[in-house]
């Protein structure tokens, strides 16, 4: 058995055609949902992820996959994990990884971004990631010959406007509120001007909030900043004779101002659907709700949850009244969003209605707001940290033994092997991954990633492979083969038809 994972030349002769989608930002809020939704749509996915001081790139991705398996109660295929950083030249990937991407990736979803409103210079965040990182991604994608590009922008590249914002417009001389909007506007300008791609598809989500069904979030910006603040302050306010917490605050708004809030699960569902619909490529999509929410709706939902009263809406011309400690704390901690509180544009969504109209955006209601608060409380408002995932076997580290096992099985079936056979090995679940077993009849080579379309795939749960390796560890190969040979033989038979 020859381990060819370090030999790019083997990849080029085994894998016919590009079949993988490359995803950036997979460990972020939207990214983790895209990872789930693309895999559930049976897409082959590769991700570029950074390590942290405590977790490797593959551990971070594995934690996300184990979370989804727990939610869905089934084993899932694993993406190809490539360590890198979009803020680095060539995305910080190795030459071997870059060549693998060139030979295997047909589409790129650039989803990585950072939400920061103020920058000291254009070399700092958010420009470093949102603009310079996007420039790096465009250069890398063109260099590797990836034909289709999908870019996750933001609806707020429109800036501050009272006009209806059309999906096909970008630069209208608009006033941008902050450096975040500027960085995304500049990045989308680069994307729209990019040459060398077959298709460029742009997604512009509005304010992304948590999961409409579970309340899950992994970031505490936007709506969740307000919810966290309210949850921290209201329970400590005095109660009146009826037991209600007294939260007297005069808000400089009417209360009925529209809010374009979109649940993350819907945003991901729409993006995944359009990515998987080639005829829908090459357009810009406003991922905005059919019906806006209102500030009053959100605030009243919070008051009902925490049994509080005292909020007054005193109009947009009134000045914030912060004489008491409660009001002062609210205004001081939400000042960053002040420019969004009294206006939110109306967005044209013709392309979304045409190509994803069967996926209606869930309406924001009190029950959903309560789910967000409940999740935040259970998650200690982001303080609960995810540790390293529990993995018995990282099968990527066991390729030599897996190859030995496969060669033993091939030896049993050698009489039926009249030609060279290529088989995909898709190990699902904990520690899993995807490989190609190439040149089976003459000496197995193991190549990262599944083979091109038309080749048979042996999909097997990682728990079964772990049993095989356990048997091999105690030098019981015959028993191990008995667990595996039937599935392997069936797959080889398919390859020889």
Number of separate helices: 15
Please give the number of β-strands. 20
Indicate the structural class.
Answer: alpha/beta
Rg, please? 26 Å
Largest sheet: 7 strands, parallel
Name the strands of the widest sheet in spatial order.
4-3-2-5-6-8-13
Summed up:
The protein is of the alpha/beta class and 497 residues long. It has a domain at 395-496.
List descriptors.
seven-stranded parallel β-sheet, 497 residues, single chain, 18% strand, disordered N terminus, 15 helices, alpha/beta, five-stranded mixed β-sheet
Question: How is the topology of this model organized?
Answer:
Layout: E1 2-3, H1 8-14, E2 20-24, H2 29-40, E3 44-49, H3 57-72, E4 80-83, H4 95-104, E5 105-110, H5 127-144, E6 148-152, E7 164-165, H6 179-193, E8 199-205, E9 207-209, H7 223-233, E10 245-251, E11 258-259, E12 261-263, H8 264-275, E13 284-287, E14 293-294, H9 295-306, E15 308-313, H10 325-334, E16 346-347, H11 350-356, H12 366-378, H13 399-412, E17 423-428, E18 433-438, E19 445-448, E20 457-461, H14 462-473, H15 477-496
Parallel strand pairs: 1-19, 2-3, 2-5, 3-4, 5-6, 6-8, 7-16, 8-13, 9-12, 10-15, 17-20
Antiparallel strand pairs: 11-14, 17-18, 18-19
Helix pairs in contact: 2-8, 5-6, 7-10, 7-12, 9-12, 13-15, 14-15
């Amino acid at each position: 058995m020859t381990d060819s994972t370090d030999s790019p030349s083997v990849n080029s002769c085994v894998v016919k055609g590009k079949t993988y989608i490359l995803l950036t930002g997979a460990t972020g809020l939207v990214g983790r949902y895209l990872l789930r939704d693309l895999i559930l749509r049976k897409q082959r996915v590769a991700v570029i992820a950074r390590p942290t001081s405590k977790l490797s790139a593959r551990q971070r991705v594995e934690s996300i996959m184990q979370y989804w398996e727990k939610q869905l109660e089934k084993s899932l295929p694993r993406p190809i994990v490539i360590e890198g950083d979009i803020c680095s030249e060539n995305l910080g990937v190795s030459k071997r990884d870059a060549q693998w991407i060139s030979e295997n990736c047909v589409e790129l979803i650039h989803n990585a971004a950072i939400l920061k409103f103020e920058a000291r210079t254009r070399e700092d965040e958010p420009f470093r990631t949102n603009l310079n990182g996007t420039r790096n991604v465009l250069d890398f994608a063109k260099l590797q010959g990836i034909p289709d590009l999908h870019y996750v922008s933001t609806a707020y590249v429109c800036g501050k406007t009272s006009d209806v914002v059309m999906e096909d417009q970008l630069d209208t001389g608009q006033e941008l509120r902050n450096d975040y909007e500027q960085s995304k506007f500049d990045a989308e300008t680069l994307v729209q001007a990019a040459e060398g791609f077959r298709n460029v598809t742009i997604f512009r989500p509005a304010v992304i909030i948590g999961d409409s069904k579970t309340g899950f979030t992994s970031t505490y910006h936007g709506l969740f900043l307000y919810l966290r603040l309210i949850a921290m302050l209201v329970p400590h306010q005095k109660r009146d004779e009826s037991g209600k917490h007294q939260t007297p605050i005069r808000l400089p708004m009417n209360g009925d101002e529209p809010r374009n809030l979109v649940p993350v699960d819907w945003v991901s569902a729409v993006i995944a659907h359009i990515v998987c619909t080639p005829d829908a490529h090459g357009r810009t999509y406003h991922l905005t709700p059919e019906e806006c929410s209102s500030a009053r709706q959100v605030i009243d939902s919070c008051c009902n949850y925490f049994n509080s009263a005292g909020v007054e809406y005193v109009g947009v011309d009134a000045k914030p009244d912060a004489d008491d400690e409660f009001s002062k704390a609210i205004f001081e901690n939400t000042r960053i969003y002040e420019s969004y509180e009294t206006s939110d544009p109306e967005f044209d969504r013709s392309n979304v209605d045409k190509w994803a109209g069967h996926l209606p955006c869930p309406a924001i209601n009190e029950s959903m707001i309560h789910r967000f608060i409940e999740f935040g409380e259970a998650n200690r408002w982001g303080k609960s940290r995810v540790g390293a995932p529990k993995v018995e076997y990282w099968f990527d580290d066991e390729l030599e033994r897996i190859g030995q096992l496969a060669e033993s099985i091939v030896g049993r079936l050698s009489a039926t092997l009249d030609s060279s056979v290529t088989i995909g090995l898709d190990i699902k679940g904990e520690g899993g991954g995807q490989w190609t077993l190439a040149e089976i009849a003459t000496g197995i080579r193991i190549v990262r990633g599944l083979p091109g379309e038309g080749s048979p795939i042996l999909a097997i749960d990682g728990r079964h492979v772990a049993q095989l390796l356990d048997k091999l560890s105690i030098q019981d190969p015959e028993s191990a083969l008995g667990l595996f040979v039937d599935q392997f033989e069936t797959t080889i038979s398919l390859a020889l038809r």
